[in-house]
Specification:
Elements (H helix, E strand, L loop, with lengths): L1 H6 L9 E2 L4 E2 L8 E4 L6 E5 L4 H18 L4 H17 L1 H12 L3 H21 L7 E2 L6 E9 L2 E5 L7 H12 L3 E5 L5 H17 L7 E3 L4 H9 L3 E7 L2 H13 L3 E5 L4 E5 L5 H13 L9 E7 L3 H13 L19 H16 L3 E4 L18 E4 L5 H4 L6 E7 L2 H9 L3 E2 L1 E5 L3 H8 L8 E4 L11 E2 L2 E2 L6 E2 L8 E9 L15
Parallel strand pairs: 7-8, 7-10, 8-9, 10-11, 12-13, 12-18, 13-16, 15-16, 18-19
Antiparallel strand pairs: 1-2, 3-4, 5-6, 6-23, 14-15, 17-21, 20-22
Helix pairs in contact: 3-5, 3-7, 4-5, 4-7, 5-6, 8-9, 10-11
The protein binds nicotinamide-adenine-dinucleotide.
The site of nicotinamide-adenine-dinucleotide has 30 residues, from helix 8 and helix 9.
């Protein structure tokens, strides 16, 4: 790991507040934030949290940078993002490994996360030439009317631990090509990967003489995130994390009539119809439920199975779970790595207890693994529970590998169960029946931001708009026209005639 950190020019003891090119801080040693790896429990880094004084300096540097950056032509901004993508290609192995070690996801998924950064860079380069506005026909003679899109200003990005770098890039790369500057507050559980990202893009920023402050990093816990939410100088707060966090951020930002973009918790279901191809469905279920140890916002948490195939699906799942290898995620042979910390393990245990209390039956019981290779205390056995109904524990997102099985008779019942939770992120149906698939995708079908057919709930491509409804927060990031969230729309009317015709035929004579 040391050699990777050296290559990334990131020191474990490095102070944590940055305005792109410089790292500095005014916080005391006593306040240092410790980052422990869930893989082996080792202390990876001690990072200086951002103080109020640091924060104000960062925001002022960002604001000054915005005055220059907003005037750089968008395709030129895209070219700089393209160069960042090249840097991430170069450092993919090192950064992917660091993501895996700091967060605990498998090496493959760590690399996959860096690939997402590269992909969004490529997407943003193309988008930088397509920040299109519409042209409208004016009702007045000799008038032209059109709309254009301008940058917002300073964008605050609050990110969660489970995608420690990709979520930042989804926001930052689009925000930058749109002409904004960014201040990133990563999760306090994964500060080192954020520092590494800043180091990776630093060279590009310097070589292109990008003003100091276009890319800023602040570190710390929720109190530091709250600084962004309260601050009227932050034009947009894009926050990814729990619904509890999203409600707090939304209320604060709405109180100052600011803009927010929320990507919050999911409680994703798959419907397995009697017309499903189970050879495709079973691996999708297992990957969706245990991948990243159930710590994806899109993890499969609920399985809604047609009653005629319920026993068959159940048996196949129990068999597949029996083959899972749990252990160090840096070892490619393992399927399931650790949870992020012991608090997450406690949440998993509490859910297992509630399952029994609420009439559930554990087909595969949960367990905290002990002994050599499990010293961090964060490794748990993925569990499967049969539930009598969508009880309270099923309604709640437990960020751990617990899969709930539910039975249905008709497709309408299945859709009602799928929609019958407070969250609305990702959903899918496995069926080869066209009518079922189309009904699931119709206005009377899934109420989620993502609805799939014959692929699982987990994982998304950057080309589509990503996000969900209800308690998931309603925001959309990444592809399609998600860029519009990072810009303000301006309608322009130009009179090139010699008279002043008023709208709606109103006469005003002097
Ligand atoms: P979390 O809510 O504990 O923390 C997320 C971030 O918000 C952290 O940076 C944290 O410091 C900050 N924060 C917490 N409370 C805050 C407050 N009151 N004001 C300002 N900032 C605050 O979430 P987590 O445990 O890091 O991540 C897991 C959660 O994130 C899950 O619910 C998961 O579903 C969700 N998530 C959603 C998406 C999505 O795109 N929908 C993606 C990734 C994760």
């Amino acid at each position: 790991m040391q050699q990777f950190l050296q290559k990334l020019k990131t020191q474990p003891m490095m102070s944590g507040t940055s305005t792109g090119q410089a790292f500095w801080h005014t916080s005391a040693e006593a306040d240092l934030l410790d980052s422990h790896s869930p893989v082996d429990g080792q202390l990876m880094a001690r990072v200086y949290p951002t103080t109020r004084e640091d924060y104000d300096q960062v925001v002022e540097t960002a604001r000054a940078a915005f005055l220059k950056w907003r005037l750089v032509p968008a395709p030129r901004r895209g070219e700089i993002v393209r160069q960042m993508g090249e840097q991430f290609r170069q450092y993919k192995k090192e950064l992917g490994t660091l993501v895996s070690y700091e967060m605990g996801k498998s090496l493959q998924e760590g690399m996959g996360e860096v690939q997402e950064i590269i992909d969004i860079c490529d997407f943003a380069v193309g988008q930088s030439r397509q920040l299109y506005g519409l042209t409208m026909h004016s009702e007045r003679p000799d008038h032209r009317m059109y709309e254009q899109w301008h940058p917002l200003g300073v964008v605050g990005i609050i990110s969660a631990f489970n995608f420690p770098v990709a979520v930042w890039s989804w926001n930052a790369m689009l925000a930058w090509i749109c002409g904004n500057v960014c201040i990133w507050k990563p999760s306090e559980k994964t500060p080192l990967t954020a520092l590494a990202c800043q180091q990776i893009i630093k060279e590009v920023l310097e070589q292109n003489e990008v003003p100091e402050g276009v890319s800023c990093l602040i570190t710390g816990g929720r109190d530091v995130g709250a600084l962004l939410a309260e601050d009227p100088r932050i034009a947009l707060v894009s926050a990814t994390g729990s619904t509890r966090m999203g409600k707090a951020v939304a209320q604060t930002v709405a109180g100052r009539l600011g803009r927010y973009l929320l990507e919050l918790g999911g409680n994703n279901a798959m419907i397995i119809s009697q017309h499903a191809d189970l050879n495709v469905a079973i691996p999708a279920i297992v990957f969706g439920a245990v991948g990243t140890a159930g710590q994806r916002c899109t993890s499969t948490r609920r399985l809604i199975i047609q009653e005629s195939i319920y026993e068959d699906v159940k048996q196949r799942l129990v068999k597949a779970y029996g083959q899972l290898r749990i252990g160090n995620p840096l070892d490619e042979k393992n399927h399931v790595g650790p949870l992020i910390d012991r608090a997450a393990v406690a949440g998993y245990q509490a859910a297992l207890f509630q399952i029994k209390e609420q009439g559930g039956r554990l087909l595969i019981d949960g367990e905290i693994l002990e002994g050599p290779d499990f010293e961090s205390g964060c490794y748990v056995r993925p569990a499967i529970a049969e539930m009598p109904a969508q009880t309270e524990v099923v309604q709640h997102e437990t960020f751990a590998p617990i899969l709930y099985l539910l039975k249905y008779g008709t497709l309408d019942e299945a859709i009602a169960l799928q929609n019958g939770v407070p969250q609305g992120l990702s959903s899918s149906i496995f069926t080869l029946n066209l009518r079922e698939a189309e009904r699931f995708l119709s206005a009377a079908g899934s109420d989620c931001g993502i609805a799939n057919v014959n692929i699982g709930t987990s994982g998304a491509e950057i080309g589509g708009a990503f996000g969900g409804e209800k308690e998931t927060g309603g925001g959309r990031e990444s592809g399609s026209d998600a860029w519009k969230a990072y810009m303000r729309r301006q309608t322009n009317t130009i009179n090139y005639g010699t008279t002043l015709p008023l709208a709606q035929g109103i006469k005003f004579e002097l």
